[in-house]
Amino acid sequence: MSREVGAKKWGISRIGMYLFLSVISLFSLFPFYWMFVMATRPSSAYNSIPPTVIPGNQLVGNFQKVLDMIPFFQSLLNTLIVCLTVTIVVLFISSLAGFAFAKMKLPGKNMLFFIILFTIVIPPQLGLIPQYLLVAKSGLLDHLFAAMILFFLNPLGIFLMRQYVSEAVPDELIEAAKLDGCSNFRIYRSIVLPIILPAFATLGIIVFTSVWGEFLWQFTVLRDPESYTIQVALASLNNTFKVDFGMLLSGVFWATLPLLIVFLLFNKLFISSVAEGSIK
User: What range(s) does the ABC transmembrane type-1 domain occupy (predicted)?
Assistant: First the structure.
């Protein structure tokens, strides 16, 4: 009898948990749905009372206005190039640095690691002017490389990789590889890298989404419309006294789709890496 009561209580609590999570999920997804609704409506629907929650029939028309105003697909391609390049470089540098900080005996490595972590609390706006002057003197303005270079060194990525390597990679495995004559880079390539691949999904999604949403630095160094990233291009739609919200949110909607696709493709790897870290 007590077992049945316990099972019943467990069933009720489980149903309540799922209902709670479903409500939270709906609240989280509603801004995306509202953005889609506004992308299918004229600009006047933005301030309508009561608010419009039913999609309209102007999605293609609003997007055509976006294409007439900005080089949307070129900007989208530029953004993909920037995000993919930065993500690959950050994964390589962060994993290599994380391995060095976690497993190698280097003089002053703890102090250097502390300095790298300390840079997280420094607002990026403080270095905007000197960084811009360095890029300008290097002749990199309006080049996509200028939009990437600041993000190659990621303190959060180095911290995450250091923690993951220190817990996931046994010291005995590295010592055995050294006895076999393996160099440090070969140990990283053949032993450490396969073990930490699940962490790549977590860090990769974090870096990709953060660079995708970056605006201030890209707006500072990219002035040629042909070199615009999607965030800078969409911001240029807002340079008039009368904003067409249907057109603007249509551009935002189509610019958000690749980001959602990337997350859905790597969602399982992301969840598995988080679950694996929590088990450890």
Answer: 76-266
Alpha-carbon torsion angle 271, 277, 279, 280, nearest 10: 160
Cα distances (Å, whole numbers) of residue 189 to 97, 157, 193: 13, 18, 5
Number of structural domains found in the chain: 2
For position 278, what pLDDT does the model report? 43
Which amino acid does the sequence have at 182?
A: C
94 belongs to a structural domain: yes
pLDDT classification of 280: cutoffs 50, 70, 90? very low
Nearest 5 degrees, angle CA 148-CA 226-CA 249?
A: 85
Measured distance CA(126)–CA(207) in Å, rounded: 21
Reference 223, options 208, 235, 210; nearest CA is 235
Q: For 27-44, what is each residue's pLDDT tens digit?
A: 888 888 888 888 888 877
Residue found under tokens 């990233």: 229
| Domain containing residue 15 | 2-58
Task: Check which CATH number belongs to the domain holding 217 and give it.
Answer: 1.10.3720.10
